[in-house]
Amino acid sequence: MRRNASVTKKVDSLRKTDMWTALIGPIAELTKTWLANRHEQSQAKHVAKMEVIKNTATWEQEMAAASATSWKDEWFTVVLSMPLLAVCYGVAMDDLSIMQRVGMAFVELDKLPDYYQYLLYVAVTASFGIRGADKLMQMKGGK
């Protein structure tokens, strides 16, 4: 009888071990699959970010090469400097009418349709290679 009790204990012990193995095996496999998926997602995000960086650098190089012989930047610089030059001239020559006309010009420019102002902002910022025209528009105010 003693031998039978010993065998019964061993069988019970093996059954418990088999039960735990049967439970832990699938859980371990699920965990392994989940970790592998997380790693793949992380790798995919990394590859996508690197592609964006590469494309951005390529675009900037192309824009720099294209603007090497362009007068667009200089033209915008001259146009944007005209009000400053007019105000300086008005102060130096004591001609207040020029400063008033510059002020009137800005008031009229502010009356232009929003879409035209947005297009102008985009054109100027693209010309100077400034990204974030939306940030410039936010600086303009609630318009």
Structural class based on helices, strands and sheet pairing:
mainly alpha
Strand content: under 5%
On the 0 to 100 scale, the average pLDDT is: 78
Global outline: rod-shaped
Cα-based radius of gyration, to the nearest Å:
36 Å
The number of helical elements comes to 5
Number of strands: 0
Contiguous runs where pLDDT drops below 50 for at least 5 residues: none
What is the CA-CA span between the terminal residues? 95 Å
Please outline what is shown here.
By secondary structure, the protein is an all-alpha fold. The protein has helices at residues 2-66, 72-92, 96-110, 114-127, 133-140. It has a domain at 1-69.
Commentary on this structure:
0% of the residues are buried. The chain is mainly α and 143 residues long. It has helices at 2-66, 72-92, 96-110, 114-127, 133-140. The mean pLDDT is 78. It has a domain at 1-69. It contains five helices and no strands. The radius of gyration is 36 Å and the shape is rod-shaped.
